[in-house]
Amino acid sequence: MTSYRRKQRIEKILRYVVLAIVTFITLFPLVIVLSSSFKNESELFDFPFKFIPAKPITDNFTRLKENFPLYIWNSVKLTFVIVIVQLFTAATGAYVFTKLHWKGRDFIFGLYIASMMIPMQAVMIPQFLIIRSINLYDTHMSLVLLGAFTAFGTFLIKQFFMSIPDTYCEAARIDGAKEWTIFSTLMLPMSKAVLVTQIIFSFRYFWNDFFTPLIYITTPQLKTLPLGMTDFVREQYVYWGPQMAAALISIVPVLVIFLFGQKYFVQGVASSGIKG
Amino acid sequence: MNISHSLKRTGTILSFLLPSFIGFIIFVLLPMIMAFGLSFTNYSGGPNFRFIGMKNYVVAFTNPEFLKYLWVTFKFMTVTVVFQIGLGLVFALILARDFRGCSFFRGALYLPNILSSVAVGLAFMFIFEPTSGFMNQFLISVGLPTSKWLASSKSALSVIITIAIWQNFGYYMVLFIGGLQNISQTLYEAAGIDGANKWKQFVHVTLPGLSPMLFYGITIAVIRGFQVFDYIYIMTGGQQGGGPAGSTNVLAFDIYLNAFTYFRFGYASAESVVLMIIILAMTFLQSHGQKKWVSYDII
Amino acid sequence: MRTKKILLVLTLIACLASPVFAAGASETKAAPAADGPVVISYYTWDDSSHKALIDTFNATHKDIQVKAQILPAADYETKLTTLLSGRADIDAFMEKRQVDMFGQYDNGYLEPLDSYIAATGKPNPAVEAFKSSSVINGDTVVIPWRGGAYYTYYNKKVFEKAGVPTPDYYVKRGEWTWKKFEEVAKAITAADPSLVGSTIYIWGGQGFFQAGQAGDSIVTPDGKIDNIDNVVKQLEMRKRLEDVGAMWSLVDMKVTKLHYSKQFYDGNVGMLLIGEWFPGQMVTGRNDGLLAYDFEDWGITRLPCDQSEYVTVGLPTGNCITSYSKKKQAAFEFINWMSGPEGAAIAASYGVLPAAPGEAAKAEIAKNLPKGNSLDYFLEEKGNNTANFSPYGTRVETEFAKLQEDFLLGNINIEQFKTNFTKLLNDIIKTTY
Question: What string of DSSP letters covers B156-224?
Answer without folding.
Answer: HHHHHHHHHHHHHHHHHHHHHHHHHHTS-HHHHHHHHHTT--HHHHIIIIIHHHHHHHHHHHHHHHHHH
